[in-house]
């Protein structure tokens, strides 16, 4: 597993310097997919990424054989999670 847990300024520095192939902001957090993933794919490795629908079309342009998997929970569980988060109206 590859993961970076750092501050916003560190993330912005990495994003500004091309470390991420994709990055996005959601719910006051910043997320990015490192370009190292592309090296793994090019080496024939299987890669699982928890990503965003926001860049999926662009990912398909780079790797047309990409496979998306939707993992979800029952509606009642999703509703309880949303209520607990308290961010949605």
Describe this structure in words.
With 89 residues, this protein is α+β, with helices and mostly antiparallel strands. The chain has one domain. It is built from 4 helices and 2 strands. It has helices at residues 8-16, 36-42, 56-62, 75-85; strands at 20-26, 29-34. It has a two-stranded antiparallel sheet. The protein is globular. The model has no long low-confidence stretch (mean pLDDT 85).
Structure described in brief:
With 89 residues, the chain is an alpha+beta fold.
Question: What are the SSEs and their pairings?
Answer:
Blueprint: H1 8-16, E1 20-26, E2 29-34, H2 36-42, H3 56-62, H4 75-85
Antiparallel strand pairs: 1-2
